[in-house]
Automatic annotation (TrEMBL):
One of its GO terms (cellular component) is plasma membrane. It holds the Pfam family BPD_transp_1. This is ABC transmembrane type-1 domain-containing protein. The keyword Membrane applies. It is found in: Cell membrane. It is a multi-pass membrane protein. The chain crosses the membrane at residues 12-38, 70-96, 108-127, 147-170, 191-212, 253-272.
Length: 284
């Protein structure tokens, strides 16, 4: 029976994967290639594209908002990656211990991840502006307020999701190694940094990869919370590209060039981060 099943899979696998493969080509590869071509064109629609070479890429750097958004996004991603992973790891470690109501608390922490980004942005805009109103300020008063407002929102949303990944990793830790560390007289701190964290590196790799890429790609929450105000000062890269493409007449080519540069930056950083954390993984 197993042999027959194996033969059937080898015979028919291509027909089952073909629809998904075709959809991937049409929905991702083709638009991606067209997008790269359009980044070298002056256009308003795909049909009237006029090739202009590297002119759009030159105009990226003459637009002062792009460099500011890039630096703003890098700072935002670093802060949120550190906070989310440390807090999620700590909560996961706490919930893997024997405690009443652990399952309920896990569900509560995970719930924010189920809410859409636009809704979260509006809710936190009301909450944070209500608090800042006591000092006569608002999220759009300065980029600093917008920055920390975004940090609070994203951390609140993503900590629960990363917590679930860390809990799964902790529950799969080999108990014999943990018991051996206790027998050898290792302190809780030594056990954490010499045993648990090295064994948790696969989960740390996944969570750090997700938080880094999510930080760079953030759009919905930025749009709803501050919309880049004041004066594009709290504008992340994704929103900057959107505003360039749709908010400035004749800048579609520049916006597309920004999108290509954005893709390259995210891809390089994600690959470097993934390689760095993967190199620290150990075999249990």
């Amino acid at each position: 029976m197993i042999t027959m099943t194996g033969k059937s899979i080898r015979r028919w696998w291509a027909w089952f994967t073909l629809p998904t493969f075709v959809a991937f080509i049409i929905g991702f590869i083709v638009p991606f290639v067209i997008g790269i071509y359009l980044s070298f064109c002056d256009f308003t629609t795909v049909t009237d594209a006029r090739f202009v070479g590297f002119e759009n890429y030159k105009n990226i750097w003459s637009d002062g908002t792009f460099l500011h958004s890039l630096l703003f996004t890098v700072a935002f991603t670093i802060v949120t990656t550190v906070i989310i992973n440390i807090v999620a790891f700590a909560i996961a470690y706490m919930f893997t211990k024997v405690m009443k109501g652990a399952t309920l608390f896990r569900s509560i922490f995970f719930m924010p991840n189920l809410i859409g980004g636009i809704i979260l942005g509006w809710v936190w805009q009301i909450l944070l502006n209500g608090v800042l109103a006591h000092w006569g300020k608002s999220l759009t008063y300065s980029a600093t307020y917008g920055f920390w407002g975004l940090v609070i929102l994203v951390c609140w949303q993503q900590i629960g999701y990363m917590m679930v990944i860390y809990i799964a990793g902790m529950q799969s830790l080999p108990t014999d190694i943990l018991e051996a560390s206790q027998v050898d007289g290792a302190s809780p701190t030594q056990t954490m940094f010499r045993v648990i964290i090295p064994l948790m590196m696969p989960s740390i790799t996944v969570c750090s990869f997700l938080t880094v890429t999510n930080g760079f790609k953030l759009f919905d929450q930025n749009l709803a919370l501050t919309n880049g105000n004041p004066g594009h000062q709290s504008e992340l890269l994704a929103l900057n590209i959107y505003n360039t493409f749709y908010g400035r007449v004749g800048y579609q080519g520049v916006g597309q060039a920004k999108a290509v540069v954005f893709f390259i930056i995210v891809a390089v950083i994600a690959l470097l981060q993934n390689r760095l954390t993967t190199s620290k993984e150990v075999q249990a």
